[in-house]
Amino acid sequence: MKLRTWMFILFLFAGLGSTLAQSITVKGNIVDENGEALPGVSIIPKSAPKSGIVSDIDGSFTLNVRSGEKLTFSFVGYNSVERIAAPQMNVKMEPTEQMMNDVVVVGYMERKVANTSASVIKVGAKDLEMKPVANPLDAVQGKVSGLQVFSSSGEPSARLSMALHGQGSLGAGTGLLVIMDGMQVSMAVLQAMNPNDIESVQFLKDAAATSIYGARAANGVMYVTTKRGRTETRPSINVRAQYAVSSLANTDYFDQLMSGPELLRYYEETGIYTPQEVATFKEKYFKETDFQWYKYIYQSAPMYTADVSVSGGNTGVRYYLSGGALSQDGLRMGSSYNKVFGRINLDAKLNDWVRANINTQVSYDATRVSPFGNNNAVGGGLAAMNAPFASPYDPNTGKELVRVPLLDIATPSHVIETNPAKTNNFILSTNGNLTITPLKNLTLRSLIGLELDYGNSRSRTLPSYYRAYGNGSSERSFSMASNITITNTASYNMTFGDHHLTTLLGHEYTNYKDDGFSAEGSGILDDRLYLLNNATKNKNIGEDTNGYAFLSFFTQLSYDFSERYFVDLVLRNDASSRFGKNKRNGLFWSLGLLWKAKKEKFLQDIAWLNDLDVKASYGTQGNSSIPPYSTSAYAGKVGQKMGDMSLGFISMGNPDLGWEHQSKFTVGVKTRILNRLDLNVEYYNRVTSDMLFEVPLPYTSGLTVGSAGYPTRYENAGRYLNQGIDLQLNVDILRGRDWGVSANANLNYNKDKVLELFEGRQSWQEPGGQLSYIVGKPVQFVLPLYKGVNSDTGVPEWYRPGADKNKPHRDDKDVVNEWSSSLSQNTGVDAYTPFTGGWGISAYWKGFYLNADFFFAIGKHMISMDKQFYENDYFVRDKKDNFNGSRRLFDYWKQPGDKTEFPSLAWVRDPSHQSTYLDSKMLENASFMRLKNFTLGYELPRRMLGQQKVIRSAKVFFTGRNLLTFTKFRGIDPEVNRNVSYGVNPNTKQMSVGVELGL
To answer: Alpha carbon of 531 to those of 369, 398, 424, 459, 539: distances in Å?
Structure first.
């Protein structure tokens, strides 16, 4: 009996011990190769993969598993680690070779960024995602040295203007070539996509990087890589949502307008109205109204965006799927931008030597652009000038009026309601490629891609519109554009001891076509009958079609010895249908050299120097960005007489028109010091020759007069220089186990110079324009030079031009006191911004993180045409329109000795005079700095999410855009990338909150 009892007790404890051994609580920390906390690492039990978790922001984790369980630790860019579970675990993860040698795309091959002579700057997903703006590339501003990015409008659908290393041409297009996942796409594709789908954006800057693209790469290349699924991880689901409110980025310009009492005082002080008239008007009409029109025109606007992505895969198939939507209203009334988007990226390994992938993006958008133009006083650029004692609201009921009686204008709401307009676009971008490795080191790849853009727009003016007087109109248009790309490449890698050689041969074909038609008519008499078939008069139909093609063959050779000395060679031949048979082909090439000096014996023992690279490149690229058929002579409709069409010459053509050529030399040094500071300095010299220039022709040529005001034709003429320095700096200021502070800065200095013009001219100024091309000088502004107000007489004075108007002539004894356009001369002020750059700071502590990025432009100048309206007594004294003006107008000359900004009233009130003219006084320094992006967020630790298995990670954040602006520019917005600022729709400031969940 005792034996049985002891056996029972023994088996009881054994069973209890076995039960306790089945489950243990694992706690631990995960660090990277530098001993820093590594958040977001997937920790997957081998027997129960669905119960996996991710490490917290400080690298810690807690997990209940069976005793003896095998745990797999995996994180993108790091080698997976497999360990037996233990109560306390400290795991160190090592980066993969790819992570240690970050990969960039150079031409048609992927290269380790450390082992290429090309100049490439990479902006990652972290800098691009979850920004409160419709354009995904807005966050690039201030991140890349040498890249000028300006936002010229507050319209939510507006595109950015981008230029790399200056304006490369004086006559042809200067836009960057955009490649996404191996296929050329338009900026419309990027505008319509989800920014959270972007893995990275790379900017290829020098000849070694761009010459492989030949004909289209003269202005630089932007390569966009989208996200893909990862293997050996469970499916990852990410859900994001964001809400933002937009307001004016800077209100200084509007705040300097006179208030109601100030305007009445100006009326009385300057004699526009007598004191009795002012008192009567105030009592009868104005009351106590002091309305700020700009706050009515530019109302706060919301933005909503949400998206979801699913990614994962195994060794055979990887997938990434996403979809979402964005809705954003513009500040200027009547504008909005809405889009829905989706993406599918699939990668399949069919067998050991065949791989395939498909990348597809689809989007649909609805755009409304504000119907109020730059010179519109209802809701456009001049609306803020409306008198503050007039209001668009009924003083008795508070309801918005249809018409403001005192100003005799309709209210914006009435205009928008009775002038409905909308544009819709459907965009498909898809490509598929097949990669075959029939032999070791030999890779054959074929890609075929299609971009399809389908758009339609409609605009109506209903008969009930205040200014239509019962006569409505309607307009519709449709367009379709397609771009097909076919690329075939063969590459082979060879290794002979310390010698490594990669060769590539390729062929590419691009075919673009667009087609469109439009119809319009008026005489619509009923708001309900707005279709075109109800138009009774002024019926018009239009149709247009365009197309061009490129056929290219290229080769690339990359050699290195012992991964210390590198040579890159490129040769490409392009044929373009835009040119005649005589000059259709263009040959482009480049040579790049890289010396990894740190690997030399005499530098290997220097502990504080972690890396040192010296690189140089020289090569050529081409530009063909001109309208199709510019080389062809053809006739067309030039008028109509007695119902019959009149034919005439449209173009004389130029069969000898050829490629615009660019040669570019770059030399640079890249280093890493103390394992904390990265510095990259480059000098470039960029010469554009045989420019595609619209050369003026005499009126007797018989050709129609174009937009320039005279007949023209394209010719290869002139040379143009851009040279400068790029500087890129990154530094880890402080870092600890779960905290750190880092900073970055970049700067570009670019100087341009005209080297040669057409027909041997030494200078050229477009008639009516304010820019001058002078051989030996940068492109500069041409205006009458304003001297100021004579303190003795109160009369304004302008400098008389000298014998050579290409040189500024400022002789105080040679002045005139009457403005004339004939006084125009070179101002000596450069048209293009010489200094641009950005700087930022990042910090994290525990689960908190902060990022602040600034962008600046120094030496930027712009003609502020708004001053001719806002700072002009001529418009304030106009009793018909009742415009407001700047309170600066009080600074007018009154007596001898006064030093004032504006002339005497006696001079200004002459019917032929104004306070402000188009002269150098309007040419202002528009240098500025903006806090472009600011983010403050918190990522919840895993322990706060409890034991539930649905939510793996959670993040909440605040993001601001354009929160601060520093400038002395007196115009509406200093960031406008134009030579003239007039009634622009200014940039906006956004403040947003968002949440991101990982499931």
So the answer is: 21, 35, 18, 11, 13
Tokens found for residue 865: 């045409």
Above 90 in pLDDT, residue 945? no
CB atoms within 10 A of CB 98: 11
C-alpha distance from residue 31 to each of 28, 51, 426 (Å): 10, 22, 46
Beta-carbon neighbour count of residue 1 at 10 Å?
Answer: 5
β strands within 160-300, DSSP E: 161-164, 177-180, 183-184, 198-204, 221-226, 233-248
Task: Kindly tell me the sign of the dihedral angle through the C-alpha atoms of 429, 318, 78, 89.
Answer: positive
598 contact partners, CB below 8 Å, separation of at least 6:
604, 609, 610, 611, 612, 613
Return the H-helix or E-strand segment holding 3. Answer: helix 2-21
pLDDT tens for each residue of 242-299: 999 999 888 888 899 999 889 989 999 999 989 998 888 777 777 777 889 889 888 8
Taking CA 325 as the corner, what is the angle to CA 321 and CA 329, rounded to the nearest 5 degrees? 160
Residue pair 722/751 in contact (Cβ under 8 Å)? The answer is yes
Angstrom distance (rounded) from CA 340 to CA 426: 10
Express each pLDDT in 794-828 by its tens digit.
Answer: 999 999 999 999 999 999 999 999 999 899 999 99
Q: Could you identify the residue written with the tokens 């690329």?
A: 487
799 — phi, psi (to 5°)?
-75, 135
User: If you write DSSP's letter for every residue of 701-717 in order, what string do you get?
Assistant: G-PPP-TTSS-EEEEE-
Q: At CA 242, angle to CA 237 and CA 247, rounded to 5?
A: 160
AA letter at 70: K
- Give, for 295, the enclosing helix (H) or strand (E): helix 293-297
Question: What are 120's strand-pairing partners?
Answer: 204
**941: DSSP letter:** P
Instruction: Name the burial class of residue 341, with classes exposed (0-12), middle (13-18) and buried (19+) by CB atoms within 10 angstroms of its CB.
Output: buried
Tokens of 533: 């078939």
Nearest C-alpha neighbor of 148 from the set 134, 164, 160, 126: 164
Contact (CB, 8 A) for 566 and 591: no
**Cβ neighbourhood burial of 143 (10 Å; 0-12, 13-18, 19+):** buried
Q: List beta partners, residue 958.
A: 936, 993
Residues with Cβ within 8 Å of 100's Cβ and at least 6 positions away in sequence, in order, are: none
Extract the tokens encoding 91.
Answer: 């795991």
Going along 777-879, which residue ranges are E strands?
780-784, 786-789, 796-799, 815-816, 824-830, 835-845, 848-858, 861-864
So what's the pLDDT on residue 424? 94
Phi, psi of 301, deg, nearest 5? -130, 140
Pairwise CA distance, residues 228 & 230, whole Å: 7
**How many whole angstroms separate alpha carbon 287 and alpha carbon 284?**
7
Distance, CA of 278 to chain centre: 50
Interacting residues of 555 by C-beta distance below 8 A, sequence separation 6+: 503, 504, 505, 506, 570, 571, 572
Q: How confident is the model at residue 34 (pLDDT cuts 50, 70, 90)?
A: low
pLDDT band per the 50, 70, 90 thresholds, residue 9: very low
Residues 128 and 224: beta-carbon distance below 8 Å: no
Q: Which of 30, 36, 37, 44 is nearest to 90 (CA)?
A: 30
The alpha carbon torsion through 41, 46, 52, 55 (nearest 10 deg) reads -30
Which two three-digit tokens encode residue 427? 């965009």
Instruction: Give me the pLDDT at residue 102, please.
Output: 58
| Largest Cα span, the chain | 131
Q: Which residue has the tokens 């673009």?
A: 512
Let me know if 577 is exposed, middle or buried by CB neighbors in 10 A (0-12, 13-18, 19+).
middle
